[in-house]
Amino acid sequence: MLATGAPAMAQDDSRDRTPLRSDSTGGATRPRGLLRRLLDGLRGASAPLASGDPLRLGRYRILHRLGQGGMGIVFAAEDESLGRRVAVKTISEPDDSARKRFRREARAAARVNHPNVCQVYEIGEDSGQLYIAMELLEGETLSSRLQRGAMSLAEVLKLAQGMLAALQALHEAGTLHRDLKPSNVFLTAHGVKLLDFGLARALPKPLTQSLAGESELTRPGLLVGTPRYMTPEQVLGHATDPRTDLFSTGAILYEALAGRPAFLGSNTVEVLSATLHEEPPALAGDAAVVALDRLIRRALAKRPSERPPSAAAMLEEVSAISPDGRGASRAVARPLTRLAVLPFRLLRPDPEIGFLSFALADAVSASLAGLPSLLLRSSASVARFASDAPDLKALASQADVDHALTGTLLRAGDQLRVTTQLVEAPSGTLVTSHTLQSAICDLFRLQDELSRRIVGELSPSLAVREAGPRRGVPANARAYEFYLRANEVGRDWAHAAVARDLYGQCVDGDPSFAPAWAKLGRCHRLLAKYYLEDVAYNLERAEQCFRRALELDPELSVAHKLYAHHQSEMGRSRDAMIGLLRLARENPNDPEIFAGLVHACRYSGLLDASLAAHREARRLDARAPTSAIFTWWAHGELERVAETADPGDFELRACALIGLGRPQEARETLEAFTRRPLPRVFDSICRALLALLAGEPGAIERFAETLKYKQDPEAFFLFSGVEAYFGDAERALADLTRSVEGGFTVPQALREHPWLATLRSSPRFTRLVEQAEAGRRLARDAFHEAGGEALLGGFPLA
Questions:
Q1: pLDDT for the residue numbered 473
Q2: Which of 186, 204, 323, 707 is deepest in the core (most CB within 10 A)?
């Protein structure tokens, strides 16, 4: 096919003058412009010249039309002086603004001489008619190619390299593209060509300066770009820089690899809302697919500062990704299906089965967890969306899900009827509905049947037919009822003791039910750590329960995940890390596993690995809770801690604000927290920090007293920083010793955290750093041996 690689001026002007419409795939588009007709519609065809068409423009003899749009016409022409065929693009009825834009387009394209950029030969004017002469290309646009489906990994890597090489040249020449989209990417037999520089502009100096100087070419109040590929900063009217083009590149690469746009919506507003607030589903496949998805996701970061710093840097990372295996050239990615099981709604009040609203939804989610093409959102995380008519648009946007399961419960005598609907989000399209009935005493069979049906309905959208939900069958119905009741009660830490007793009744009735042992271990750990109840006994009992769960079911994911936190806090973070890495190899699509690795890697001193695990958890679930804020604290990133702390991380946020010289904000944070019902240890920490801020006599002693029953070595590290900051070096060194000897071996934090600066001249401190370094080396070697780099993204780990 012969087609011009000319930038499409007509599309630029139609964007300014013509309202958006929805395309057949539910995306926001513009009316078909000049290049879209030219490049997508023509297959080696041409149109004859019409009456009034020029026969010559400058030195170019016009041969025939290639396409026409609202702004002008593109002709095939012959450059008689050089004997070559070219594309000549014209502008119809230009006003001053259109003429300036047309000239700017030509200058932007001509500024770059690069094999991946369509070459502009000349801009001219003949009898008042402006024209641009440029390359005539053979091939097709990326938008045409994507109509046939997703591309293979090898194809997308080649596409990425060509696009980024072109952008590197463009940016180094001082120009942004600002309108990257599949129809502006042309595929030839010799590689990629970037087209359409109608929205290109010079880089601002500095990059953060206002765009006000562009007002004559970009009308106030109008979006500049194509909605599906626009960046958050373009949507919000903020300044753009080279990372703007990287975001659009990420959106294009995602669509090419996944076979679906990164940001969905049935109209422009929905697409732009998704761009601002939603994340596309993670992509699954081989290691190279996951590596490319990680890079794409960084390019799609909402904040420009979190994207790759330049096209050159992103190109370097793309070039380092190499497909493995004989079938790599055909390897494709698949978007993971994201499902939320909403709490079931009781059709009439019934205290006997009220616990099932959350408990049954949690049980269904748990039984589906681990399926390789499915990501589950916990019912607790989506509970606020449960209602008679759930807001599926809000659910899709705020919880990043593609499907939701809603249901109702109704008891009649000893029978329980469950009616469910599986719907797509945000559209609300019904996938399937089911009504199941079972005896209340046989809740497990009911949950199991419901899980199997969900898998059956979703399997067409999954990559392969899944093996089915994991089956952990309790020995008797009464034990399972205790388990479900405990799950419901245990959602609130304040009721950990009640949950402990219910799990205890479950394992009394069925000593072989491993999930109950794992959850029982968690209750004992919480009671020891946060409520300081019989600490030694509860910690020992937690260890026994976790071990029992894993003896009964060595592959039980929930047991490994819960046990890892206990192991880390008991000085065995290396064991926890190795176990979680093994689990991640078996199920690389479980964000909770990587959230556990954030914790275990940090305790082991592998801060870069901890943050890589955080990124992997967030790749899979953009809202996955992790302990990365503690890793940032260990890095000494006080500003980031203050900005990102959740309400539950009150002590870290308060300490960060203190370190940043904002004591009043720290005081307000602590005072707000003390007004809530708190576990004993949190209340003590809050009040001790307030006393330190107030300069009360004996405040440092009161603060140190809060550590009296602590077993967590990271707590000793955190508290030693506070003690050093407030001038008690002796206490700080004593608690740092307990921290390192307890298994928190983080030499980087010891060397670099600003609050420990006053301790670094002490020989005792030097010995602690050496001891921590020795522990970190053991963890690093174990991490290498367990294949941690491949699982977390292949970063350097010294």
A1: 67
A2: 186
* CA atoms of 297 and 301, how far apart (whole Å): 6
Active-site residue identified among 12, 13, 179, 649: 179
- Which residues are CB-contacts of 438 (< 8 A; sequence separation ≥ 6)? 415, 416, 418, 445, 446, 449
Exposed, middle or buried, 15 (CB in 10 Å: 0-12/13-18/19+)? buried
* Lowest pLDDT segment from 50-64, 193-207, 742-756, 763-777: 193-207
For tokens 């140190």, the residue is 704
pLDDT score of 220: 36
Mean pLDDT, range 107-128, rounded to an integer = 83
Question: Could you check whether the bond before residue 426 is cis, i.e. omega within 30 degrees of 0?
Answer: yes
CATH of 336-461, one of 3.40.50.300, 3.30.565.10, 3.40.50.10070, 3.30.450.20: 3.40.50.10070
**679 touches 492 (CB < 8 A):** no
Could you tell me if 297 and 263 are in contact, meaning their C-beta atoms sit under 8 angstroms apart? no
Residue type present at position 195? L
* Residue 590 a catalytic site member: no
d(CA 651, CA 645): 9
Please tell me the distance from the alpha carbon of residue 421 to that of residue 435, in angstroms, as a whole number: 9
Architecture of the 2-139 domain: 2-Layer Sandwich (3.30)
> Which residues are 74's β-sheet partners?
67, 89
| Model confidence pTM above 0.85 | no
680: tokens are: 């004993």
At the topology level, CATH places domain 147-211+219-334 in Transferase(Phosphotransferase); domain 1 (1.10.510)
C-beta separation of 8 from 69 below 8 A:
yes
- Please, which contacts does 28-31 make with residues 24 or more away whose CB atoms are closer than 8 Å? 28/226, 28/227, 28/228, 28/265, 28/267, 28/268, 28/271, 28/272, 29/226, 29/227, 29/228, 30/226, 31/70
